[in-house]
TrEMBL record:
NCBIfam families: AGP_acyltrn. This is 1-acyl-sn-glycerol-3-phosphate acyltransferase. Its EC number is 2.3.1.51. It comes from Spirodela intermedia (Intermediate duckweed). SUPFAM superfamilies: Glycerol-3-phosphate (1)-acyltransferase (SSF69593).
Length: 217
């Protein structure tokens, strides 16, 4: 693992002038890394289309595990402070994944627009954690609106991905749900879409991880 990561970092440095080649190399590396692991993937037929993949979030490492299960040409999107997360933050930046600036609303809107432009221009898919932060209680948090803005701006369908990375000793399972078409979505109904996707996602979680009482939020 150390050796392959080192080799991979070297390849990334050689690809510095080609940012989107780095995204694809990173995905490829991940696909090879998970090959040897007992992961059960359900709904993989939904994992081959260009989409906005959404996933729940429990640890900073998730972003890598998740990125490795999505198609080649999938870019991650995270808050810009990820760069300070030791090692993984730097690899994230090296792999040219997108960062958004949430310091104020103008910066947030502009960085979401930039991300949408990069996705369209480079024919990419996106992976985003719509909760925006890690759930301390292990229950699904409310969703932020960013993923709906990205759907409206790119016209890409939304594919929910439900992971059970922590359910041991059962093998790891990932389930891709069928794509939610967004091309006819109405920009004035953003809050409804956020709620609708959140409710759908919750229904696919075990009851212990569904949104709980107010004190969990
Ligand atoms: C998402 O939720 C599942 C099942 O509720 C949980 O086991 C898993 O750790 C979470 N995965 C991520 C990536 O947050
Ligand atoms: C918002 O943040 C950006 C980037 O950090 C900064 O350039 C801008 O001045 C800020 N705007 C406001 C209104 O604070
Ligand atoms: C864009 O990506 C999709 C799937 O990832 C692929 O089928 C298609 O050929 C690509 N289009 C271009 C113009 O590269």
């Amino acid at each position: 693992m150390m050796a392959t990561t080192f080799l991979w970092a070297l390849i990334m440095f050689m690809l510095l002038p080609w940012p989107y080649a780095r995204v694809r190399q990173g995905n490829l590396y991940g696909h090879m890394t998970i090959l040897g692991n007992p992961i059960t993937i359900k709904g993989s037929e939904f994992a081959s289309t260009r989409a906005i993949y959404i996933c729940n979030h429990t640890s900073p490492l998730d972003i890598f595990l998740i990125m490795w299960q999505t198609p080649i040409g999938t870019v991650g999107i995270a808050k810009k402070e990820i760069i300070w997360y030791p090692l993984f933050g730097q690899l994230y930046v090296l792999a040219n994944h997108l960062r958004i600036d949430r310091s104020n609303s103008t910066a947030a809107v502009e960085s979401v627009r930039e991300a949408a432009r990069a996705v369209i221009k480079n024919n990419l898919s996106l992976i985003i954690f719509p909760e925006g932060t890690r759930s301390q209680s292990g229950r699904l948090l409310p969703f932020k609106k960013g993923f709906v803005h990205l759907a409206l701006q790119t016209g890409l369908p939304i594919v929910p991905m439900v992971n059970s990375l922590r359910v041991r000793p059962a093998p790891l399972t990932v389930e891709f749900l069928s794509p939610i078409k967004t091309d006819g979505w109405d920009p004035t109904r953003i809050n409804e879409y956020v709620e609708m996707v959140h409710a759908l996602y919750s229904r696919h979680l075990p009851s212990s991880q569904r949104p709980g009482s107010a004190e969990d939020r």
